[in-house]
Write a structure and sequence with these properties.
It is a single chain. With about 1150 residues, the chain is mostly helical. Among the domains are: about 80 residues; about 160 residues, no CATH class. The chain has 48 helices and no strands. Helix 41 runs parallel beside helix 44. The relative contact order is 0.02.
Length: about 1150
Amino acid sequence: QEYDRLQILADQGQEVDLPEQPDFTPTIELYQRLLRQFPDYRRRDGVFYLIGYCLNEMGRVDEALRAWLNLVCANRFTYHPDQFAAEQAEDAAENADADAEADSPDAHPAASLDAEPLVPEGGPFVNPYGECEPVMEDAEFISETWFRVGEYHFDDYGSEHALDLAIAAYNQILEKPDDRNYNLALYKVAWAYYRASRYPEAIRHFAMLVQWSDDEQERTGNAGSELRPEAIQYLGIAFAYDDWNENGLPDTVEGQPSGIQRVQDATLVPQDRPWTPDVYFALGQVYFDEAKYPEAIEVWRLALSKWPNHRQAPEITNQIRLALENQNQFEAAMTVQSELAQFGEGSDWWNSNMENPAEQREAEQLAENALIATAIQQHQFAQRERRHCVELIQAGAQEEALARCQQAQTFYGNAADAYRRYLERYPNSPNAYELHYNLADALYWSERYEEAAVEYAAVRDSNLDDIHLSESARRVVESIERIVEKAVESGQLTIREEAPEAQGTPPQVRPVAMPELLQRLAQARELYIARVPEERDSEGVRAAYEYNNALVLYWYGYWPQAKERFERIFEERCAGPYANQTGLVAWENLRAMAIALDQRDEIERLAVTLNERQCTFDPEGEPCPRGDELEAFCGNSNNSNDRCCRALGDITAIEFQRAVEMFEEAEAAEAAGNSAQAQELYLRSAVMLVNAVNQTPGHEQAPIALERAATALEATQRFDSARSLYQRIIDEVGPQTSDDPTRQQSLDRIVANAYFRVAYNANRGFEFEEAVSNYRTLVDSPRFARSSDTTIQGFRRDALVNTAVIMERLQRYDEALRYYREIIDSSSADAELKRTSLYRIAEIAYNRNDNNTAIRDYRTFIDRYRNDRDAGELVVQAYWRIAQVRQRMRQTRDYRAALNDVVQAYGRSGQEPGSIAAEYAANAAFILANENIDEFEDFAIRAGNPRTLEVYIESLKSQIDTGATRAGELAEGYNAVTGYRRPTWTIAAFVQQGRIYELLAKGVLNAPIPFVLPAAVQQQLRGQRLNQETRDEIQFQIEDAVRQVLDAKTRPIECLAVARYALAARAARAGSLDTEYTRTAIDRLQAYGDERIAECIAEAQAQDASFAAYSPGEFARAPRGQTMTIEADITPPPLEAQ
């Protein structure tokens, strides 16, 4: 009790002086005294057992054995305490040198009880316990004592027959199967046989123990033996041992059976017991533990083939997997691992093991673990292969790298499938979140991007955890990006890379339908930005995603949304620690949108903001220079694309634009007739344009700005200033060149226009030499000659013509002829220009008074263009010139023929009445008609010597009628002139017709009144002898009668004249014409007076309703050389602005 008390205190951590062994000496002495004094004590069996027990506890095992043997084998062994003590003293003295005598028999007293060994050394074993009888017939503690005796021998490693003695002692217990120590004895016997290398006997006894345990369990319903598992284990060990004859050679080498063969031997182990599979399994486990994996796999496979529905089948299958893995047979192991799924719920195995829920749970756990293990293992293999692939690529081993990458992809696919099966089977697993992420990762690296995107999104949106939030959200984006890339490569998807064009007024951009894939990608980026805060953005992709989404919105026309994002990006990344190139691109796109939408204020704001905020778009970058430094920097063409120069260019371009707009406003004001406003706007625009050029002379808009400014100055009549600007264009823009063909063409056109306008203004200022010099530059310069620009060629053509014209005007006819002929030979000159040039050649001969050459050249022109309807006017004019030349040469007959040619040529030309050609035809026709009017000037009535008054009057009438007929014929000749509808000659024709009628009237009115009376009247008067007074009265009456006749004939003729004069006067007023004939018409009308004019016009109106009525004073004017009186209430009209 004291020992136990101290032991408890020590176990509690207290420091105690605990002896190495308990001291039962008082108890032992008491029991020994009892035996001495009462050798027949009825409970002496208990005394012997307790003496042995106490001695054994105190380490006096030999003496304990003798006490026990005295109890169970009293007929052969006795225990005398005093005698044994004497023997011990004697042995101690003899064995003082324990090392020297360690091997002597005396070192093992138990082997020679009663001074005799239990079994003779060196001879065959003779069982000393075969005939044992207990100390008393009904002695107790027999079984316990035999077991302790067996234990003594079992632990004796020095005696030759110790194991045989142990077996003999244990067998004493086995004679009674119902003994409570029976199973222990069986176990120890089997173990002893095993230690004695007597493997069949060991196997048989281990098997007996297993069978006894199972029988006992079946009999009692309680567990059999606790030693059953060890028995099974030692069965496996025994079968696995391959040197049963202990000769140092494997049994199979000597032709003996292997362990797998022996375990199938029914003589060694029954093959039909429920526990037989356990032996097979145990054998496999021993092989496994000894790293004999093929043998383990073989025996396990054998067992599973015999007992496929054994409760341990899942566990053994898993062990096979482990064995394969330990042999690096990973693919085979994965195959076996997949077999674990066959033990799941609903399988034959499952249904056969409904009474084994623990094994079912274990099977389920194995299946679960197998799926996880398979997935993880495949995942690891994939990562390893991918790492090797990358290393090989870096080393340049492309083919081997490709194989590794393909293998990695296969592993990733296997892992993904395993992860998916696991999650489908165990959706509520505590590891579901992590495994879900692994599934997505494996899908991604196996290039199953569509599935990966879905699974990554599920992880991203999971409420289970958020440890993989950032990575999964990013991988959703990257998975869809891979899908997009493949769709683009296959041609299934085309991604816009430029924004749609703005349309309409004002410009607007309509969104373009965005492909669904791009929408998914953009949404994934947006979710990343929304879900992943900056502190968790470990890969730093938030900024890129925001930028890319803004770019997609920009490309597809969602400009308000794109602008919002670009503004934020520009604001954040313009300058400072977060500055980068995406800020610059955002600024570029904002600028592009403003330009496309014609938002000038926005363009200006962006340019100003760029400089005001000192944007660098790089934490280490430099801001834009300012002032003169900026202008110098941007003056270098190599810097033209720099952001600073583009911003400066935008500001300058806006200044140019505003100046151009003012120029256009001036043009509009001019078109609207607001001359004063136009003049002011032109002048202001010119100043703005020149200032803009002066500020940025190298700006690409500078040439056109100078041109517009010069045009504006011309519009304000500042020709000298305009000419100076055109000269500046020649001096500054002329030397400029560009690699851009369009730009170069524009420069050439501007310079060509400058040369033309300088020449034009010089010509205007009568500086003909300078004009010709600049025109000649246009004509002769290779720069302009090789240009295909139609405008430039137009300038050259006009310059060529103008040079010829100037030379002609300067009477430098030979040079003019050269240029006209150059025009004719030019391939760029059109037909009209060539036609005109050929005509001008004839005109030069005409102006030189080289009459014959002129006629020849005009004839050449007529012959070439006679049938060209477009040349009709010039052909008629050429005929007219020939007539003029004939007149100049005084060739009257040819002149008259030439005039007829003019009229006929007009008739053939197809020219319209009122045309210029009609002018020449009208003139010619008028001259021809006018030839005969002079003969009518002498028209008069002859009185003659009429016999009677009636004859006289009839004679007058006849002469008047004859004159009227002639007058009508002459007047009809002028009607052809009016048909040409040329105002000058129409008026002249009207006037001449009026004159003809006046000449007729004058002749009538001037008809002689007979002062000598007709003969019949004179004869009558002589017969009546009338006085002179009466004679005069009669003569007056006769004259009055004649005058009445003449007056009646004259008034209609005068009215014809008045009507023609009125038509002439009205036409002159309508056309603002003042010619000899218009003045004659007015003068003659005034001779008649208002009343007479009104009367005649009324008569004409009665015959022709289109003849306008007369307005009193309509034809009134001051006599020549006098001023007309203006009534007090009449205001003269204002002078028309010129």
